[in-house]
Design a protein that fits this description.
- By secondary structure, this protein is α/β, with parallel strands linked by helices.
- It contains 5 helices and 8 strands.
- The strands form 2 sheets. The chain has a 6-stranded mixed sheet with strand order 1-8-7-4-5-6.
- A hairpin with a 2-residue loop joins strand 7 and strand 8.
Length: 190
């Protein structure tokens, strides 16, 4: 297939993806929100509640991160580090993991992360939100919450996996002839 022909076909697929995303946003806007409790979290500064994480905002993004042992979650968080100031202009943004606050702080410093982190260790938060596996391990993803009438509502969530819409690395690799070609993220590269 000639380059121009392939590019035209790919453009048509991108238009279809954009149309599907528009339909998805429409469904999301109509979905009934799910009330959740005001969970407790640990931070280096002490205990905090889910309601405090909003920081005066109506909306809150909470990233479900598996912790410092996961190179995939680390790669996603590295990417969020680059866009967190844009996201935080619209809604509060925080990363949650099972790691204790001191470990989170040390790991975040080593990666240059600027976003706030909380530890859900010892709580049912990850389980209740659907981010624990049947074997008891943690799962990556994102939950979006909204404060409304004194209540906290979860308005959406989705898991993370290679190739998803939440990590640009996979989509950039898709432009290579061989794609990611069995590549996987690492904590450090040569």
């Amino acid at each position: 297939m000639k380059y121009a022909q392939a590019n035209k076909r790919l453009g048509a697929y991108r238009e279809k993806i954009a149309a599907i995303r528009a339909r998805m946003r429409d469904i999301q806007a109509k979905a009934e929100a799910e009330p959740v409790q005001d969970y407790n979290f640990a931070t280096p500064a002490g205990r905090t509640r889910l309601s405090d994480l909003f920081g005066g905002r109506r909306d809150l993004f909470v990233i479900h991160n598996m912790g410092a042992s996961c190179p995939y979650c680390t790669m996603w968080a590295d990417g969020f580090n680059g866009v967190c100031h844009h996201l935080a202009d619209r809604a509060a943004f925080v990363v949650s993991s099972p790691d204790p606050p001191a470990a989170q702080k040390k790991f975040a410093k080593s990666r240059g992360w600027r976003f706030p982190m909380v530890s859900h260790r010892g709580t049912s938060f990850a389980q209740d939100m659907g981010y624990r596996s049947e074997s008891g391990g943690y799962l990556p993803g994102i939950s979006v919450f909204q404060k409304k009438g004194g209540r906290i509502l979860r308005v959406s969530d989705t898991g993370f996996s290679p190739g998803d819409d939440f990590c640009a690395v996979w989509h950039i690799f898709d432009l290579l002839r061989e794609g990611a070609d069995d590549w996987s993220p690492k904590f450090k590269y040569r």
